[in-house]
Amino acid sequence: MNVNRFCLFQKCVNLFHLQTRLVKVQVEHLLSRRLSGARTCFLGDADALTVKPEEITAVMAHLHASFPGLSRFTVYGRARTAARYCSAQNLTMFRQAELDRVHFGMESGSADVLKMMNKGATPEDHIKGADKAAEAGLSTSFYIIAGLGGTALSQSHAFETASIINKAAPDFVRIRTIEIFDGTPLDAMRRNGEFVEADDDTVVGEIRTLVEAINVTVDLFRDSATNLLQINGRLPGDRERMLTKIENYLIMPPRQRFEYSLRTRF
Fold this sequence. Notes:
Layout: H1 31-35, E1 40-47, H2 53-66, E2 72-77, H3 79-85, H4 88-96, E3 101-107, H5 111-116, H6 123-135, E4 139-146, H7 154-168, E5 172-177, H8 185-191, H9 200-213, E6 218-221, E7 233-235, H10 239-250, H11 254-265
Parallel strand pairs: 1-2, 2-3, 3-4, 4-5, 5-6
Antiparallel strand pairs: 6-7
Helix pairs in contact: 2-4, 3-6, 6-7, 7-9, 9-10
């Protein structure tokens, strides 16, 4: 259900940019999912941490009254907003309203990659934002994008992302693989040679680095249709099982890897 629309930042080079507007709460949007038995609700679709806590509290009260069977409520939030602009009191009010989790679009822990993608956030923002949310009692989830550094920054992207995850200690990490959309600034960078897209083997190598280097307890999911390998588990306990699946792919002959990619994605 939407409580606001479109990101206020509007400058990332790997995304389309649309005019920001606030929309009325449409509880009816939940009806079809509720009738299907859904028990969770995502309050979308932009940085909900910019919404006043009083408004979130009113939305949550209305949802509880209308759909008492819903049991988990989550939002998307920018780490920069949590770190620099959202007070500890506001975050606590979100939790008191029975909001459960904030999904942060971390994307990368590398300062160079974040700068290249014009994300407007720093690695330190990711750490501070997650820490403040956790201190308020909110669960935290990081979304990262494999391949976001291209070939040039692939290694630093993987190692530095793992480092920030270790420092921020989110509850969940969800991995997506980069998709370059026609007409975006990143598409222009690819066309003029400023950005060289990482191939499948390079992206899988980044995932291996993450699995090897993350040393905090975290649930890691790589469950998107954009991903070549579905690597899911809880670190550090599932590390060896996850690495075995990665190695089984990397030791395939080139043709077999190519066929695997076709079967997985098409």
